[in-house]
């Protein structure tokens, strides 16, 4: 346990480099640490005062939020595995400048973070991991014939209320340490875009009932799609994000599209203030890891192609031996036997 606290103190020091999403450093919290005492809130990395206060008043909530931080890291890196920027900065706090410069990458991470924390809390209500909440409410509309409301719906309302209170806290601080006003407006806007994407991911799920496997009646509830589906929606918004400027509009400054400022910013579009680097070469100041030694796809014409991923530097081939199950046979009753086959696969990495 002492070792876990020492690791937390180290993470806490590293997490000071980023403001609005410092809480993502919670993803590195040792799994052996269980948040069951109020003093634990003092050593959790990346929390502002209001977040620490929420921790002290709802200790069981913090395990869910730690899980959300891990989900953000895993989901972000998987969603961008085919692109030059692949969320590596989330895994290394010293590279966090790329998430605080107001780039479209920051826009995506803030949106995904806001969606993930509300998603995780809503699911925790359903699974019974949180005593603070229960299943979501039964819809008011009457279902179609053959359908009935039942089951345990994901409590999206509770997830959104508590999640936004936690994730938006750093941007609502009055202290200047929370970043520029323009950056705060950008992060708050993109966080809400993430939560809207989560609302759109609430779908009807059903379970069949009937004699001999028939589906004469269906019990249905409102459930959330997996976070990876929300992330793919946000990736589409990332690719079409709008560059904005902080400009006086009426009595106050607002974010407006830089090139088409005849219209206001749309509620469902991600926005960014600064252009991104190309992420081809390593640059600590810009938060770029570069693409050297990244795996590429020789036959692809997309963003993971060796030409685009390697930025024209070329690539090196190497062979990899894979062991797979093969020649499987089903035996009555009731097991399957397989042989092991080896095959050589050619891979490519950027120079």
UniProtKB/TrEMBL annotation:
GO molecular function: cytokine activity; frizzled binding
Superkingdom assignment: Eukaryota
Subcellular location: Secreted, Extracellular space, Extracellular matrix
Keyword Oxidoreductase attached: no
Annotated GO CC locations: extracellular space
Presence of the UniProt keyword Acyltransferase in the record: no
Signal peptide (UniProt feature, chain positions): 1-20
UniProt keyword annotations, A-Z: Developmental protein, Disulfide bond, Extracellular matrix, Glycoprotein, Lipoprotein, Secreted, Signal, Wnt signaling pathway
GO biological process, one term: canonical Wnt signaling pathway
Function according to Swiss-Prot or TrEMBL: Ligand for members of the frizzled family of seven transmembrane receptors.
Entry's family note: Belongs to the Wnt family.
Name under which the protein is recorded: Protein Wnt
């Amino acid at each position: 346990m002492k070792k876990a606290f020492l690791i937390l103190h180290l993470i806490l020091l590293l997490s000071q480099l980023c403001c609005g999403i410092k809480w993502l450093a919670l993803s590195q919290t040792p799994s052996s640490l269980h948040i069951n005492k109020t003093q634990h809130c003092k050593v959790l990395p990346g929390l502002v005062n209001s977040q620490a206060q929420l921790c002290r008043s709802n200790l069981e909530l913090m395990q869910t939020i730690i899980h959300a931080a891990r989900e953000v890291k895993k989901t972000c890196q998987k969603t961008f595995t085919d692109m030059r920027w692949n969320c590596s900065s989330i895994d290394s706090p010293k590279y966090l400048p790329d998430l605080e410069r107001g780039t479209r990458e920051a826009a995506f991470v803030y949106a995904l973070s806001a969606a993930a924390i509300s998603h995780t809390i809503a699911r925790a209500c359903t699974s019974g991991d949180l005593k603070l909440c229960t299943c979501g409410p039964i819809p008011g509309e009457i279902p179609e014939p053959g359908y009935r409301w039942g089951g345990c719906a994901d409590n999206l309302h509770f997830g959104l209320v508590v999640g936004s209170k936690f994730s938006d806290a750093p941007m609502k601080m009055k202290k200047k340490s929370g970043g520029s006003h323009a950056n705060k407006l950008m992060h708050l806007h993109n966080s809400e875009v993430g939560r809207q994407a989560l609302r759109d991911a609430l779908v009807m799920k059903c379970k069949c009932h009937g004699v001999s496997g028939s589906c004469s009646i269906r019990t249905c509830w409102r459930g959330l799609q997996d976070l990876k589906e929300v992330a793919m929606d946000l990736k589409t918004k990332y690719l079409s994000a709008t560059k904005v400027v902080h400009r006086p509009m009426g009595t106050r400054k607002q974010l407006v599209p830089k090139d088409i400022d005849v219209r206001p910013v749309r509620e469902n579009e991600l926005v960014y203030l600064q252009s991104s680097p190309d992420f081809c070469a390593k640059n600590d100041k810009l938060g770029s890891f570069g693409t050297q030694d990244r795996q590429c796809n020789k036959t692809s014409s997309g963003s993971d192609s060796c030409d685009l991923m390697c930025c024209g530097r070329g690539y090196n081939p190497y062979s990899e031996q894979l062991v797979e199950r093969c020649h499987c046979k089903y035996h009555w009753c009731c097991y399957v036997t397989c042989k092991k086959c080896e095959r050589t696969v050619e891979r490519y990495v950027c120079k």
